[in-house]
Each structure stands twice: as C-alpha cells, then as structure tokens.
Amino acid sequence: MALYSSPRLPCLMKILAAGCIHSNSSLIESLAVQAEMEDVDLVVLCGDLTLGERSTDNILGPFVKNGRKVALVPGNHETVATADFLAKKYGATNLHGYGLKHGDVGLFGCGGANIGLFQLSENEIFYHLYKSHKYVKDARKRIMVTHVHPAESMMEQFSEFVKGSSGVTKAIEMLKPDLLLCSHVHEASGLEETIGTTRVLNVSKVGKVIEI
C-alpha cells in the first residue's frame, strides 16, 4: 500500500545569498556562475562588498551580465553612498531602509554595523529595519537582510571583537521575519540558528542557495 504524503508547496523564490566578498573578483565570478547554474531569482549580498572601499570594480557586473537581479546592503567596509552608487549603476536594489517584493516574498534591510567604516547606533539599526519593514509587511514570507548579526546569538560567540547588534535582535523580536540573512563574522559563516520563530543564517562568501 502506497503511503500518502502531502504535496510539496511550490517554491516562491530561489535566492543565492553571500556576504563579505571584499572585492574578490574571482570569488564574484564564481558566485555569478553559481547563480546562473542554479537559475536563482535573486542574488542577495549582505554587505562588505568592498575592502575599505578600495575598489568597486566588477562587484555586481558579473551577476547582471548573466541576467540576475541583485539586492544588497552595505557592510561596515562601505558607505550607503557606495551601495547606492552600485545599485544605480547596475540596476540593483539597495535594501538599506528599503523593501523589495517578489510575488509573495518581501525583503527588507539595514546595512552597516555597530563598528567599522560605516557605523550605526543600535537605535539607528532598529529604525532602518522598522522603516523598511513597512514596504513588505503584507508579504506572505518576509526576509530581513542585514550585515551585522544579532546580539545574544550563537554567532556572537565566535568573536570577542565583533559583537552582535541589539538593534537587530529587537527587530527580530518585534517584526518576526521568517528569515534573517546576515554575514559580518567570518568565523560563523554558514552557521544557522533560530531566534524565536525566525530562521537566522550567517551566509558565507562562497554563497548559499535558499528556496523560499
């Protein structure tokens, strides 16, 4: 007798997420190939696109050349102005304080961190997340995108120097997104945990394909 199994819900969106690529052109080319082979709907870059803003060359070009849409937030190695420049030049979306919808999936975010070149206070981090969430609050699935990881998370334990953000943690608790994509702590790359009802993923520089 055949066992009955519930039909799998259709995939709403396929994402390739990466962070801390630091202007590494060979890594970017590899991610662009992966995005094309996986036929993702969107590439999400979680900040630290550059290394101290030394070079913005060829960061988004390989993705756009392969016909991929890109969303990003700045990290603590570049300013919002640099992220805006890249977004405008390549037709990408800067999610810093802004939201993006793809069908039933909404993405919203905040770049920067509580240390580094582009530094925000915890109140500012929470404010940008709260403000950007308004764009996607009615989406069936909501994805929060940050550079810095949450305070009081497992990720925070991987570095005594790189602290998590209480502003991000507050946003998780209040807004309850389905998924948080972040980066920042290289040692915690690929680590996944759950905070409340939110799945939290520290994406690695080699990329993670996620089906929503």
What topology does this entry show?
Layout: E1 14-18, H1 25-38, E2 42-46, H2 61-65, E3 69-73, H3 80-90, E4 93-94, E5 99-102, E6 105-110, H4 122-133, E7 141-146, H5 166-175, E8 179-182, E9 192-195, E10 198-202, E11 208-211
Parallel strand pairs: 1-2, 2-3, 3-4, 6-7, 7-8, 8-10
Antiparallel strand pairs: 1-11, 5-6, 9-10
Helix pairs in contact: 4-5
Number of helical segments?
5
Instruction: Give the name of the CATH architecture.
Output: 4-Layer Sandwich
Profile the largest sheet: 6 strands, mixed
Question: Which percent range fits the helix content?
Answer: 10-25%
CATH class: Alpha Beta
Please indicate the count of domains.
Answer: 1
The assigned structural class equals alpha/beta
Determine the N-to-C terminus distance: 32 Å
